[in-house]
Design goal:
The structure is a single chain. By secondary structure, the protein is of the alpha/beta class. The chain is built from 13 helices and nine strands. It has helices at 2-29, 45-57, 77-83, 93-99, 115-123, 125-138, 178-186, 199-205, 215-220, 246-251, 254-288, 298-310, 322-328; strands at 33-37, 62-66, 88-91, 140-155, 171-174, 190-193, 210-214, 229-245, 292-294. Strands 1, 2, 3, 4, 5, 6, 7, 8 and 9 form a nine-stranded mixed sheet that branches. Pfam families: DctP (PF03480). This is Sialic acid TRAP transporter substrate-binding protein SiaP. Residues 1-28 form the signal peptide.
Length: 329
Amino acid sequence: MSMMINRRVAILGCAMLAAVGVAGPAAAQDKPTLKFAAVFGDTDIRADAIRNLQEALSSEFTLEPHFGATLFKQGTELVALQRGNLETGIVAPQDIAKQLPEWSVLTAAYLFRDADHLKTFFASEPGKEMTKMAEDKLGIRIIAPVYFGTRQVNLKPEKEIKTPADMAGIKLRMPGGDAWQFLGSALGANPTPMAYSEVYTGLQTGAIDGQDNPLPNDYNMKFYEVTSQIVLTSHLIGYDLFAVSKKTWDSLTPEQQATLEAEVNKAVDWSTQRHLEEEAKLADFFKEQGLKVYKPDVEAFRQYAQQKYLESDFARDWPEGMLDKINAL
């Protein structure tokens, strides 16, 4: 009799252990895994921000960062999110505009005045209107814009630039593509397409008179060695978007959504501040190298560029009144 009881106890014990064994993995699965993809390298300030985010989320999420376009090629992140092959990542606004033409307004020159204006817009009602449009039509949840620098004009000639009229005849290298070439003309210059790797030699030989990039790029590519001035036109605020697949977003609890949103914003704010500090230091560095660094009549440039855009085909799909709403913020 006692042997039968012992056998029953043993069987019950095994069953309980098996149940615990099943419950263990199930509990672990309650912690969502988020694959993250970005084109920037692992030494970038933004990569440091993502590592900060990974640590901050570690008790509730498993964030798996993939930098340097190692998981998905540049420009394919949006499609990967839409297909459910990626949970979260950095998406360029230009890639959104390819699928959603209304978004092209958010890629225009002189739309945002600075990093703060960019953040203010996306937190505003017009900003929410645009992110809701992307969520409804493209299936992505946009959490925050990720600032990575302001494009400035860098010239070899010593001619002082105050207004777009002063840019007449300036051969300004711009990336290839109609949108970039249009941007060059919207600055009053003569846009010239040239590969990024050829710009230093182009400046050195006089094939081009100048180029435009955020200051960290000018430093990394040593353009300051073959130019005389940096005109702080601030014509394009460089940013991408931290986005989450809507399928992934909808699978999270309200508490998880709130935590993810809060921690992403903290990481992005940290990254933005670091970029602004770096840009300020580089302006002083370029002055030390003998370059003139000064601000032109930015408002004259803004009015000229926005008028050019409004008269172009690019503005055809812009939501009515959106430009005025952004300017008013």
